[in-house]
Amino acid sequence: MQLTVVIPTFNEAENLPGLVSALFGLPIPELSLLVVDDHSPDGTGQIAEKLAEAHPGRLVVIHRPGKLGLGSAYITAFGQALKTGAQAIAQMDADFSHPPQKLVELMQVLSFCDVAIGSRYVPGGSVDMHWPLWRKFLSAFGNWYARLILGLPIRDVTGGFRVWRRETLLGMPLERVRSNGYAFQVEMAYLAARLGYRFTEVPFYFADRRWGHSKMSARIQREAALRVWQMRFEYRHLKRKELIT
After folding, report:
1. CB 231: neighbour CB atoms within 10 A?
2. What is the DSSP letter of 209?
3. Which of 12, 142, 176, 191 has the lowest CB atom count within 10 Å?
4. 201 is in which domain, residue-wise?
């Protein structure tokens, strides 16, 4: 199965070369990368271009004029990956918090589901052992809050380590997705659940980034808290049959 891995970047110059090397070292023959860089001031975009030159035909870089948000980066990349014929599309962070080797297992379970999710909150999964208690609580509470309000059947709704079948993304009205921060992950999961797609969660250990700075902020957390209520209203009548023509 041809896999395209989408990696949004903003100031990931220290992480990107190692991540690209790790991904191309995986036993997934038809693997390509799509990097979406939001004009990183640390030169991530230029590093990505050099990596693309070193891996012709296997790495493509989309340059955007500024920090336009996580959600729009993924929607742009999903569209391009679908146009180029990807059969499976993965999304992951550039900072090694999502272990590249887990993609092999996610691809294996994708054979019997529509979305494979790297999960911190199923047995065997966990968050960084060095996180303070307040941060662990905040992560778990945010996940529980979204699951409760939206009635989602999966344990990790806020995480961004996922592999989608081509047919799943084609069956989703991506033009309706409005979340542009970390609420994007929740909205995509909720949209897929409303349409009846099947999920499988694979446990993994979420390690904190080794280099660079976290993109999480109080503003992003507030957006996510409010946005879940908007999602519940916006998609309340959505059913899979509405998309069948």
Report:
1. 22
2. P
3. 176
4. 3-243
Distance CA(185)–CA(172), nearest Å, equals 14
Spatial separation of the C-alpha atoms in residues 127 and 205, rounded to whole Å: 6
> What is the pTM assigned to this prediction?
0.91
| H or E segment and range at residue 6 | strand 3-9
- Per-residue model confidence (pLDDT) at position 139: 87
Inter-residue contact 117 to 201 (CB < 8 Å): yes
Strand locations in the chain (E): 3-9, 31-37, 59-63, 88-91, 115-119, 126-127, 162-165, 199-203, 205-206
> By C-alpha distance, which of 122, 139, 142 is closest to 208?
139
CATH for 31: 3.90.550.10
**Rounded to 5°, angle at Cα 176 from 175 and 181:** 95
CA distance 15 to 97: 11
Per-residue pLDDT tens digits for 4-18: 999 999 999 999 999
Phi and psi torsions of 32, nearest 5°: -130, 160
Q: Are 118 and 106 within 8 A, CB to CB?
A: yes
Domain count, the chain: 1
**What is the distance between the alpha carbons of residues 109 and 87, in angstroms, rounded to a whole number?**
14
